[in-house]
Amino acid sequence: MAEKRNETGRLAPPRHIAVIMDGNGRWAQKRGLPRTAGHKAGAETFRKIATYCKNIGVKYLTVYAFSTENWSRSEAEVSAIMALLKKYLLEAVDTMERDHIRLHFFGDMTPIAPELRALARETDEITEHLSRDDFQANVCLNYGGRDEIVRAARRFAADCAAGRRKPEELDEAAFSDYLDSRGVPDPDLIIRPSGELRLSNFLLWQCAYAEFYYTDTHWPDFDEAEMDRAIAAYHARDRRFGGVKQP
Ligand code: FPP
Q: Among all residues, which ones are annotated catalytic?
C-alpha cells in the first residue's frame, strides 16, 4: 500500500500532484454562461487548490492550463485564458515571495505574447530566490507531452552536434534533464476531473508510474473535500513500480 503517515499521524500527501483542469466549458454551459466564465471560475479553483496543496504539505502541483492543441479554440476564448494567466502572474509577482510559492512554466513559450513571457521571466527570477523546499506550482502553458519530448530530443541532438554531449551518454536520467520538468520529480498522482478518461498529451514521459484519479466533478466545482478523496484513493493503491509486493 502507498499508505504513509507523517509525524502528526495524518496520511502524508503525495509529493507531486498533477491536474488536468477539465470541464470549465461544460460548467459554464450548464449555467447558461459563456465558456470564458468557466475559465474564470477554473482559475479561482486553481488558487484555492494550490493553497490547499501547499497547506497540507504537497511539494509540487502541476496544472494543464493551455495545451499545444488549445490554439484551435476561438480567438476570444484563447484571449480570455491568456488574460486570466496574466492576472494570476501579476498577483504572483507581488505575493509569491511572501507566501513562499515557487512558480515554474512547462511548455514552449515562443508563441506566447511578449508581455506574458516577460511576466513569466519575472516570476522565474523570484522563484530562483526562494528555497527549493518551498511549495512549487508548475503551470503547463502551450504544453504538449509529445512536443516537450521532441524539443528535448532536439536540444540533446544540438549538444551532440556542438560536441558537448555524446549519443552514448543518453540514458533516462540524462534525457529527463532536457525536459521542461528537469529537477522536478515525476507526479505521484494525476487527477482528471469532468469525467473524461484520457491523458490528452499531458506529462507523457513523467506519468510512467503515476496513479490516476478520475472524477465527474467539473474543475470549477473541485474543492478541498474532492482533493482529500483523490489523496485517499491514492493511499489505497498498491504502488509496486514494476516490482512485487513485499510480504
Ligand atoms: C479545460 O476545460 C480548461 C482549459 C483549456 C483552460 C484552463 C485555464 C484556466 C483555468 C485559466 C488560467 C489558469 C491559471 C493557472 C490561472 P475545457 O474548456 O476543455 O472544458 P470543457 O471540456 O467542458 O469544454
A: 22, 70
